[in-house]
Amino acid sequence: MAGYEQKGQTLPYNEDVEKAVLGSILLNANTLEIASENLRPGDFYHTGHQKLFQALLDYAEQKQLKTLDFLSITNFLDSKGILGECGGAAYIASLTENVTNTASVGVHASTLRQLSMRRSLIRFCSAYMANAYDMSMSIQKVIDEGEAELSNLSYGTGDGNKDHQVNDFITQAIENIQERMQGASSGAVETGFDVLDNATDGGFRPTDFIIIAARPSIGKTAFATSIIQNMVTKGNSAEDSYSVAFYSLEMSGVQVCQRLMAGISRVPLKIIRNATFAGGKDRNFNAMLDATNRLYDRNLFIFDTPNMKLSEIRASARRLKREKGLQAMFIDYIGLIDAEMDATVPRFEQVASVSRSLKSLARELEIPVVVLCQVSRDAEGDKNEPQLNNLRDSGAIEQDADVVMFLHRVRKFDSDKLVKDRDGNQTLLPTKLIIAKQRNGETGEFKIGFRPVTASFENIDQNVSVG
After folding, report:
1. Of 46, 90, 283, 419, which residue has the fewest beta carbons closer than 10 angstroms?
2. CB 462 within 8 A of CB 446
3. What is the pLDDT of residues 383-428, one digit of tens each?
């Protein structure tokens, strides 16, 4: 039954079911609430049925009545000047003739919703094909916009344009509170850094757009890969850990894995890169192999294409969400993303467009999107702690972000500045973690430890001083 109208085929619909839903509402006003849970006016195929359903909703809302008698509703339609558009009084009266059981309205409403989705999919395919033929459009843009629309069709519940009163959200809030009181997870993705998880109420929150920024050589990438390491090695198996994507636009995938191996094994990164092991009996070699075993089957997806296009990032993230249950994504870094805009467009406008798009993606996929960012030269100098206005390229990043955090310490350090790790070894360099913005929480300063030989971060005693 499905097909393109241009090819002589009729879009899928069921006139009898549409009449049955409307007739049930006219016979029993209580069924309007049931029907409206699944249906929008646009889910009806016939225009007259769309207008009648909308009018029934409007009438019930205005009159606050439990009944929808025939005379009152036809007078209401007449006063709105749409009685004729809805088929006229005689047609509306006939809608109730073949209704034998109003209790079936929920089943009928579900049927109409499914048919509506089929029509939407057919229209989408038709438009998608037309865009593919349009040589003036970038093919990557066609694919990206098509995937976004298809995702909306796939995940949509049909109430995207529905007005929600505050009580809808109050109910959800109370349910969330009750679930948390009973021990349910907050839904946050744990970072593995105690101070950060505590400050963010359990970790990175779904839909959050998170910025990690610092001066060069302080360890933005190292901090990001350390968080990723904690996420993907959580628990004893892949099922216990998080599904994470890392878009590494600066380093190759091999280099990323080398950092992860060094962080897990605590084998110096230099030894891993140069392969300066002393054979199979080398403790470092065996520790490195153990680290690879911990990583091998985990749900970490690394993309290392330089200057990756924004549309490519969005498309791959949607696919991973759909196929692999993606729970968090990291991008290193925002300045290297190709905004796919004309070269004459100012840089700050391009970065602003990327920032808005990534925030939108976080909300669409309901995952935290963590993006690395450089700071401007105003923040140079060991004594100058970076601030929000130091985010490079665009003030839109600060506005769009839900959380902004900076890393800060002196670049040069003495060995006597090192503090002990959890094994009692004097190997960690104290680094200040500054949460400068948190839309739904407090800001503050904390300390984490940087291990220079493995280019990784760890938890640290909060009483140590940062040099």
Report:
1. 90
2. yes
3. 678 888 878 766 788 888 899 999 988 767 666 778 877 777 778 8
